[in-house]
Amino acid sequence: MADFAKLRVGLAQINPTVGALRDNANKILDYYKQAVAEGCDVVAFPELSITGYPPEDLVLKDGFVAENQGILAEIVKSIGETFAVIGFVDRATSSLEIYNAAAICQNGKVVGVYRKHLLPNYNVFDEQRYFTPGVHNPLFTIKGACVGVTICEDIWEANGPVSTQASLGAVLNLNINGSPFHAGKIGARREMLSSRARDGECVIAYVNQVGGQDELVFDGGSMILAADGTVVASAAQFVEELLVCDVVLPKSKSVAAPQQSRGQVAEPLSEDAQIFAALVLGTRDYVQKNGFKDVVIGLSGGIDSALVAAVATQALGSEHVHGVAMPSRYSSSGSISDAELLARNLGIDIQTIPIEPAFAAYLKSLEPSFVGRQADLTEENLQSRVRGTTLMALSNKFGWMVLTTGNKSEIAVGYFTMYGDAVGGYAVIKDLFKLKVYEICSFFNQQNGRDIIPQSTISKAPSAELRPDQRDDQSLPPYDVLDPILELYVERDKTAHEIIELGYDATLVKRIARLVDLNEYKRRQGAPGVRISTKAFGKDRRLPITNQYSG
Questions:
Q1: Is the pLDDT at 493 greater than 60, yes or no?
Q2: What does the H/E/C string look like for 83-106?
Q3: 367 catalytic, yes or no?
Q4: What is the DSSP letter of 490?
Q5: Residue 322 in 3-state DSSP?
């Protein structure tokens, strides 16, 4: 075995907090100590793990960059024989340029720095706004094996730095990541990494951060792939974990590597399980990282508020979730009983605050101004705004964050009330179309082996209950008609004309497209929420409010 090196590789998929430099450093050192105790020869941490990812305009502050460099220097003092690869913001000594970089550290020193070459500038990424691309490909020797280091996007391009480093002799590539989740992404990652391993004939060790950052969720799912593209070790998704794997590497590219490895392989999650876990993690981290402990939710007895309550309970614990039923003159008895049953099933407290007295008082005070005019959407929205004001009063009094309950279908077409049901700090299901909400509710019940979300909530026709016998399909197409058109128009960027050419009704498509376009101003004022798709409202989709294009 003189021609081979046996390395124990550690991948620390940690949950850093953006801007919490000292806390992130402590977490890095804690996991470094675990890796040393496990006998690792090298341990890699995620992209920009000192600053948290993405730090956005924080990196435009000279003091922030300097402090992150100082924190790295402190960490390095505690690094011993086990190598550590740590993500940080590097600054050029001869200019003001900054880099998304990885420090390779051993024995109290930074023995080398790799600067990210490929800076993504699409979807949620804005790295070209901040960083200068690196150009060098330093290689490192660990126990006689040639090792390369790359950062996130660098590995996605077939002819990128991983390929270059393999051609220079690297038999192991440590790729550190802040790769956000969307449904189906982990499968795409695995296929891409397998191709890079095979093409470069090198082992790939891919570490990804875990946690929620505003609307982004990072799912972890770190993995190690042998040179033939086989996954030989993988970490679970959505949890912090130190993945440890023994790999056997040739000391020269001229020697074929034996396929020997030893590490855990996590059970894959179904897509619905991934989505639910992402909702839970995103909600937990947004609430707790912003200093809140408790949340409050308006429980209408409907499907959307039921799922939000289920997610919040899983994320924070039932003792930290507070439900509020706010019946009006149009509320059905079934809606109230469904809300109460849901609260009992989840173990959360619920209080009932009727909005009728406040609604009646508003109507009376506005009566002189509305004389001679029929009741219309104004009065419907007024009820929603009374509910929103009630929830915000509880938030102010008790320090509870309000979780909003709007789904992507409603938000897309503006079927929500500004300063009413849209008020709150976090929009948990804003990236789930209505049909997917039903699917995830059924998944939640199946996972728990009983109907925690009442079947009556799932089976009844959705309604805002703001006028007599109101149903959503009186204002909108049925969701099984609406959602496929919205997916094409919003997530796939098809024009109305292109959707019509696919066979959809022209009048309906034009109506839906117009609703989406008209309500951009409302969405801009909404709370952030968990990103599930490849095209969420927010950073992913940036259309002008003032916009007269209709394609």
A1: yes
A2: EEEEEEEEECCCCCCEEEEEEEEE
A3: no
A4: I
A5: strand
Beta-bridge partners for 87: 102
C-alpha separations of 187 from 192, 201, 495 in Å: 9, 21, 29
How would you classify residue 428: left for phi > 0, otherwise alpha for psi between -120 and 50, otherwise beta? alpha
Q: Are 208 and 178 in contact (CB under 8 A)?
A: yes
Answer yes or no: pTM beyond 0.90.
yes
Please tell me the distance from the alpha carbon of residue 360 to that of residue 529, in angstroms, as a whole number.
33
- Parallel, antiparallel, or unpaired for β 241-250 and 261-263? antiparallel
- Alpha-carbon torsion (276, 278, 282, 284), positive or negative: positive
| Pairing, β 216-219 against β 210-213 | antiparallel
Among residues 319, 326, 437, which one has the least CA distance to residue 392?
326
Q: What is the pLDDT of residues 189-244, one digit of tens each?
A: 999 999 999 999 999 999 999 999 999 999 999 999 999 999 999 999 999 999 99
Q: Which residues contact 388 (CB under 8 A, 6 or more apart)?
A: 417, 419, 420, 421, 422, 423
Name residue, tokens 């490849």.
Answer: 534
Predicted confidence band of residue 370 (pLDDT cuts 50, 70, 90) = very high
Element (H, E) at 213: strand 210-213
What was the pLDDT predicted at 139?
Answer: 97
CA distance 434 to 236: 28
The reply to whether omega before 468 is within 30° of 0 (cis) is: no
461 pLDDT tier (thresholds 50, 70, 90)? confident
Q: What is the pLDDT of residues 498-514, one digit of tens each?
A: 999 999 999 999 999 99
Helix (H) or strand (E) holding 76: helix 62-76
Q: From the candidates 152, 202, 245, 441, give the one annotated as an active-site residue.
A: 152
Identify the active-site residue in 27, 40, 47, 202.
47
Q: What is the mean pLDDT of residues 279-283?
A: 98
DSSP secondary structure letter of residue 466: S
Kindly tell me if the per-residue pLDDT of 378 is higher than 80. Answer: yes
**Active-site position among 27, 40, 105, 116:** 116
Structure tokens at 482: 């609406």
Q: Where are the alpha helices (DSSP H) in 231-355?
A: 271-289, 303-316, 333-346
Place of tokens 């396929």: 259
Sequence-separated (6 or more) residues with CB below 8 Å from residue 500: 506, 509, 510
Distance CA 15, CA 218 (A): 9
47 is catalytic: yes
Q: Which strands form 401-404's sheet, in the order they lie side by side? A: 349-352, 321-325, 295-298, 401-404, 426-427
268 vs 282: CA distance, rounded Å: 20
Per residue in 45-57, pLDDT (tens digit) is 999 999 999 999 9
For 52, 133, 387, the CA distances from 129, given in Å and listed in that order, are 17, 11, 41
CA 36/CA 84 separation, integer angstroms: 10
241 is catalytic: no
Q: What is the mean pLDDT of residues 70-99?
A: 95
